[in-house]
Amino acid sequence: MRFRSCEALNNINLDVAPGTVFAILGENGAGKTTLIKILTGFLKPTSGACQVLGLDPRRDALEIRRRIGYVSDSPALYDWMRVDEIGWFASSFYECNYLEQYRQLVKDFELPSDRKIRQLSKGGRAKVALALALAHDPELLILDEPTSGLDPLVRREFLESMVARAAAGRTVFLSSHQIAEIERVADTVGIIHRGSFAIVDSLADLKESVHEVTVSLSDPLVTLPIIEPPARLLREEIDGRQRRWVVQGWTPDLLATFQRLPGVVSVRDHQATLDEIFIACVRGTSDIQPPLVEAGKE
Fold first, then answer.
1. What pLDDT does 244 receive?
2. 66 part of a folded domain
3. Final residue before a domain boundary, out of 194, 223, 238
């Protein structure tokens, strides 16, 4: 997806399995919202194609919007309406028993049905938006930074409801930059950076296969071999006689290989946290600093 001054998305290839919570993790401006607007038909991609529930957003945007639920970080609600009124208004767009289910969700969320929306807290407005999005039991629920600015209790309720959706066989597509909440609910994680996916994998596999490795050397000028496929170096930092790596596909065999290399004093490794994986993907190796060379050496 290209705008006048930048390329917002590039080489995106994604397949979301039904009945899962798929989370996109990225910095502000990484392309998360642009991707969601393309999936929902609000933006047309400059190239490429996609399908949502078997439909093409360029041709079937209205049908897609009928079949999905969508909650943004700042839901657009009619502030002058009461909580019950906005549900009645939205029910005219759906053929199922939308209003009955909406009223039940309002009760479950402990919302005052006779309160005007302008009188609700941000958490209350978020609950109204979620009730509106869920009342027709959508096959796919898309959430764009839905817990931004919410207090911890409301955020937890939001996340628990997402897990319940997936357990019931529905699909949740969640965009966030909150690492802790993604760790709590996601089945699969895609980390997006500068418009492209740096990594896409199940959360369990990411935590199993990605390690932070610290190699201590006898001399800062010792040269180490390149980490080759199927392993992948996500990030490297050089600090004197230490090399710190974040490696996807790190194995006991690789550990043993590096431990035997001349000039290697020790190799320590541990499974990387999602926070460490995220930092590795968005910072990469572009900020690698070469070791200092003593005067007279090249």
1. 93
2. yes
3. 194
DSSP 8-class letter at 117? G
Assess if residue 12 is contained within a domain: no
> In the numeric block, which tokens belong to residue 229?
């496929």
CA triple 175-178-182, angle to 5 deg: 70
Q: Are residues 76 and 135 in the same domain?
A: yes
Token pair for residue 195?
A: 């418009």
Q: Can you give the pLDDT at residue 267?
A: 95
pTM of the complete model: 0.83
- Is the bond preceding 146 in cis, omega lying within 30 degrees of 0? no
Residues 97 and 174 in one domain: yes
Residue-number span of the structural domain to which 209 is assigned = 205-283
Spatial separation of the C-alpha atoms in residues 205 and 210, rounded to whole Å: 8
Whether the CB-CB separation of 117 and 125 falls below 8 Å is answered with: yes
Q: List all residues 6 or more positions away from 171 whose beta carbon is below 8 Å from its beta carbon.
A: 16, 17, 18, 19, 20, 21, 22, 139, 140, 141, 165
Instruction: Identify the domain boundary among 194, 227, 257.
Output: 194
Tens digit of pLDDT for each residue in 19-45?
999 999 988 777 788 888 888 888 888
Give strand pairing partners of 247: 211, 233
Tokens 């910095």 correspond to 27
Query: In whole angstroms, what is the distance from residue 69 CA to residue 130 CA?
Result: 8
